[in-house]
Specification:
Layout lengths: L17 H6 L27 H19 L3 H14 L4 H20 L3 H14 L4 H13 L3 H14 L4 H13 L3 H14 L4 H13 L3 H14 L4 H17 L3 E4 L3 E5 L5 H22 L7 E7 H8 L8 E2 L3 E5 L10 H17 L5 H12 L3 H8 L24 H35 L4 H9 L3 H4 L8
Parallel strand pairs: 2-3, 3-5
Antiparallel strand pairs: 1-2, 4-5
Helix pairs in contact: 2-3, 2-4, 3-4, 4-5, 5-6, 6-7, 7-8, 8-9, 9-10, 10-11, 10-12, 11-12, 13-15, 15-16, 15-18, 16-18, 17-18, 18-19
Length: 474
């Protein structure tokens, strides 16, 4: 089961002069936005030595602006590059050239051509290296294609450009978390809070990050400070409620770590039992890497409860076998259960983590649950029997009913049917084009495509058409 973590994107903006965009500070909660900018016509600048070249440069600049406004991007680039060659000291032409490269990059991102977009964002940054908006566009595109090494360099370069801008530092901290570098994100947030102790956004983000890492005391301190700054902040109140529900129980737990997992478990289980469980999670790490092609670098938080305690802490339906909400929460059905008996649940919940890493939370429940069941090894024949009518055809629910969390199902029987249909749908997609297309679909969702768009790009057909063959059963 998966708790969705939507990723927010700032809508494109147009209007104003380039200089007005340069002065705006980025919004503190958003990373990965794209900015359209207006081109400038003619401004007075330092006159070059040769008046003839100056006049020709102005003509080329005007032509570049005209072509850009008509949507002829390549013509605009040619004219503006000519203007810059004729007068390398004309800041207007340089700004317009950077703006055009940036706008082309925005257009290419909308077309999901991120690698081409990156070339244009880099060209824009070369012309205007101090411009934060262009550099944030570049950072967002690098994260979208998971070029984490280049994204890390760009994130750190942004801190050098504006070392005293707390909102920008917060955006970089958010980007570093997407790049699975929580340690660096913590260090940046600590620096922001040292210089700006009443920055509510940084307080709340630090609280979230520490909560996700299992540091309840620090998370509680930070969220209380955030509420002192803004008592009406709903996100902070929600986080405090989760802390109040979970901390009394989990504060008595033991902890154990492996290379890729940090395990918190109740003391009724032995340390040897916990280590055996971690070995099984490490095996799931390898299987998951083979399955979906991603091996996260950040340790995953795993919490093991007696079944009654998990349902108490998370208000889950009695049939729930686990939950992923940024942490893997695993119930143990009885105190005599061995780690081996939890292998299917381990595979299922860890698959949810991989899907979250790949899609940044932008994944419909049916796709998420179908993949998790495949990694778990669920027998599809039972799903077919559960959904088949008397004539052998499958009784399928509308897709919009399978996009919502299955924990909202009214009863176990309904939930079982939702899981069964999810499994068969994902298996059908895998039969169509195999794992490469499925990985591309998840990557498209991670770049914030809609489901319809992500499917079309990966499979070259709409989802309803792809699923037509499933209705007759197998």
């Amino acid at each position: 089961m998966m708790g969705r973590h939507p990723i927010e994107m700032l809508p494109e903006r147009a209007g104003g002069t380039w200089s007005s965009f340069c002065r705006r500070k980025p919004r503190s909660r958003l990373v990965g936005f794209l900015l359209l900018c207006n081109l400038i016509g003619l401004l007075a600048g330092s006159p070059p030595a040769n008046a003839g070249l100056e006049d020709e440069a102005r003509i080329q600049n005007r032509e570049g602006v005209r072509l850009a406004q008509q949507g002829d991007w390549q013509g605009a680039l040619a004219a503006l590059e000519a203007a810059c060659r004729l007068n390398p000291f004309d800041d207007t032409a340089l700004t317009n050239l950077a703006c055009t490269h940036n706008n082309i990059g925005v257009f290419l991102v909308k077309e999901h051509r991120h690698r081409e977009a990156i070339r244009h964002f880099r060209a824009a940054a070369a012309q205007k290296p101090e411009d934060i908006q262009i550099r944030l566009n570049l950072l967002a595109a690098l994260i979208a294609i998971r070029d984490l090494e280049a994204a890390d360099r760009e994130a750190r370069a942004l801190l050098v450009i504006r070392p005293d801008d707390p909102d920008l530092h917060l955006q970089v901290a958010l980007a570093l978390q997407k790049m699975e570098d929580d340690e660096a994100a913590v260090a940046i947030l600590e620096k922001v809070l040292e210089a700006h102790p009443r920055h509510g956004g940084a307080r709340l983000e630090m609280a979230r990050l520490q909560y996700r890492r299992g540091n309840f005391a620090e998370a509680r301190f930070q969220v209380n400070r955030a509420l002192e700054i803004d008592p009406r902040r709903a996100e902070a109140r929600d986080l405090l409620a989760r802390l109040n529900a979970e901390e009394p129980l989990e504060s008595t737990f033991e902890q154990e770590t492996s290379l890729h997992f940090a395990l918190t478990y109740q003391t009724v289980f032995s340390r040897e039992w916990a280590r055996d469980l971690l070995d099984l999670f490490e095996e799931a790490y390898e299987r998951g890497g083979e399955f979906l092609g991603v091996r996260p670098a950040q340790r995953v938080q795993v919490i093991v409860y007696a079944a009654r305690d998990l349902h108490k802490a998370r208000s889950l339906p009695e049939w729930a076998g686990g939950v992923y909400d940024g942490k893997i929460r695993l119930p143990v059905p009885s105190l005599t259960a061995t780690p081996d008996q939890l292998t299917p649940a381990i595979s299922h919940e860890y698959c949810h983590h991989l899907v979250f890493v790949l899609t940044h939370g932008n994944c419909p429940t049916w796709l998420n649950e179908g993949l998790a069941q495949i990694m778990e090894g669920v027998d599809a024949r039972r799903a077919e029997r559960l959904l088949a009518d008397e004539e052998g055809s499958l009784r399928l629910r509308p897709l919009d009913e399978l996009a919502r969390p299955f924990s909202a199902a009214p009863d176990r029987e309904t939930a079982e049917r939702l899981y069964a249909q999810s499994l068969l749908m994902v298996q059908h997609l895998l039969r169509e084009k195999g794992l490469p297309a499925m990985r591309e679909l998840l990557g498209n969702l991670g770049r914030q495509c809609s489901l319809d768009e992500a499917v079309r790009l990966a499979y070259e057909e709409p989802l309803p058409v792809l699923l037509e063959g499933l209705k007759e059963g197998t």
